[in-house]
């Protein structure tokens, strides 16, 4: 056997490359053991050459499962921990009444439906699976739904699971507490590396939330945002920090377009976009920010070229202006809201010429809306002075992140003056 089985209440491995949890009903009586589906799973996994971990909540070699307290605290705690740790959850529900109703499986499936790591399967003709199938495949609007792949063949489901896992990734100790999809996320790795550079040690973590948009062609959900609750031993402080969330999202880029005008930087014109965002809390009910957005591709495989192209794409979409790449000046990248969000924001400067500022003024006067993507974004170009943007009266309600980037223009203005002289 190429893979390792970790059964109920056995210790979790200290090293993991890939893992699956077998979710489904467990026959409890000696007379119903013939209904068990685990032996077939193991046979198929062996044939497919699976070489990872299998978390199986069924106790080993109990001739009558009534001898096992499946409702006890030790059993339930182990199952919950294994579900958190598993890279994928393979749910096979050969429900049969009255001998194997799979009621506990319903609760576990409901808990992990939106995790993005569950595959669902059941034999054709299985009773009372219509609602569960509907929730997994049809629920919510197209752009925002999560999709739980549904299979009627155990072989097909396991083949899909192994394809999703791929080669996996080696994790040691506390790293094994997190699933593969989070471990391989570039933002998570950037956050984790930063913790290690600071001498801090990750003792444990829990994935509390994962937000998805549409699935990719291979059925893998597109991950957009995740939230984890880490347990970190803080270097040099003799304490463990475990009362905070860390929210991770793809890196973003912002472009500060400016037009030098007048004797002072506060007189210079800058370009903002106005749009509605659900979290807005200012007196206008609308945010004002620099043009920008997520850096493509969203998996974090960025280089200077992809960051630059993302910046130019976002400006063209949001304000309708195609920028000259040769005039884009890269500033630096800093974290946004470092007390909560693990996300880098890359900043570019772009000095507008007479033709460009004229075109933007025309767009601003017409309040032309930027391109709408998935009905999620509608932006209007705004031209204001630096002084208006940073004014204490909050006529232009910038948040502190955008305020900081606008203030960076003062340093950039000195560079511009040196170039001109």
Unreliable residue stretches: none
Annotation, overall tally of beta strands? 20
* Percentage of β-strand residues: 25-35%
Q: Count of helical segments?
A: 11
What is the 3D form? Answer: elongated
Whole-number total of structural domains:
3
Which value, in Å, is the CA radius of gyration?
27 Å
Mean pLDDT: 88
Distance between the termini: 74 Å
CATH architecture of the largest domain: Alpha-Beta Complex
CATH class of the largest domain reads Alpha Beta
Task: Assign the structural class, choosing from mainly alpha, mainly beta, alpha/beta, alpha+beta, or little secondary structure.
Answer: alpha/beta
Helix content: 25-40%
Largest sheet: 7 strands, mixed
- Stated plainly, the CATH topology of the largest domain is called Nucleoside Triphosphate Pyrophosphohydrolase
CATH superfamily of the largest domain: Nucleoside Triphosphate Pyrophosphohydrolase
């Amino acid at each position: 056997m190429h893979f390792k089985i970790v059964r109920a209440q056995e210790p979790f491995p200290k090293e993991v490359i890939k893992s699956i949890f077998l979710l489904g009903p467990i026959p409890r009586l000696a007379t119903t053991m013939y209904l068990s589906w685990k032996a077939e799973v193991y046979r198929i996994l062996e044939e497919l050459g699976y070489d990872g971990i299998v978390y199986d909540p069924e106790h080993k070699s109990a001739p009558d499962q009534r001898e096992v307290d499946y409702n006890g605290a030790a059993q339930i705690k182990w199952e919950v921990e294994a579900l958190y740790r598993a890279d994928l959850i393979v749910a096979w529900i050969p429900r049969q009444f009255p001998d194997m109703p799979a009621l506990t499986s319903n609760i576990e499936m409901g808990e992990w439906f939106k995790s993005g790591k569950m595959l669902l399967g059941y034999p054709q003709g299985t009773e009372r699976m219509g609602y569960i199938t509907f929730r997994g495949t049809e629920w919510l609007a197209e752009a925002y739904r999560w999709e739980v792949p549904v299979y009627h063949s155990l072989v097909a489901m396991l083949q899909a699971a192994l394809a999703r896992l791929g080669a996996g990734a080696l994790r040691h100790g506390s790293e094994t507490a997190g699933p593969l999809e989070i471990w391989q996320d570039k933002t998570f790795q950037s956050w984790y590396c930063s913790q290690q550079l600071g001498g801090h040690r990750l003792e444990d973590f829990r994935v509390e939330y994962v937000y998805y948009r549409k699935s990719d062609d291979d059925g893998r959900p597109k991950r957009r945002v995740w939230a984890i609750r880490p347990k970190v031993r803080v270097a040099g402080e003799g304490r463990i920090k475990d009362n905070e969330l860390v929210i991770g999202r793809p890196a973003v880029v912002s472009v500060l377009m400016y037009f030098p005008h007048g004797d002072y930087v506060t007189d210079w014109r800058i370009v903002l976009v106005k749009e509605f965002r659900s979290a807005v809390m200012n007196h206008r009910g609308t945010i004002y920010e620099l043009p920008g957005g997520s850096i493509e591709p969203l998996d974090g495989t960025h280089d200077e070229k992809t960051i630059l192209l993302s910046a130019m794409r976002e400006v063209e979409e949001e304000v309708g202006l195609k920028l000259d790449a040769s005039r884009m000046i890269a500033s630096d990248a800093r974290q946004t809201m470092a007390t909560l969000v693990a996300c880098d924001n890359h900043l570019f400067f772009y000095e507008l010429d007479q033709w460009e500022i004229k075109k933007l003024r025309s767009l601003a006067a017409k309040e032309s809306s930027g391109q709408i993507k998935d009905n999620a974004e509608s932006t209007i170009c705004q031209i204001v002075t630096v002084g208006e943007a940073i004014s204490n009266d909050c006529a232009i309600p910038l948040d502190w992140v955008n305020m900081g980037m606008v203030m960076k223009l003062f340093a950039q203005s000195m560079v511009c003056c040196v170039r001109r002289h």
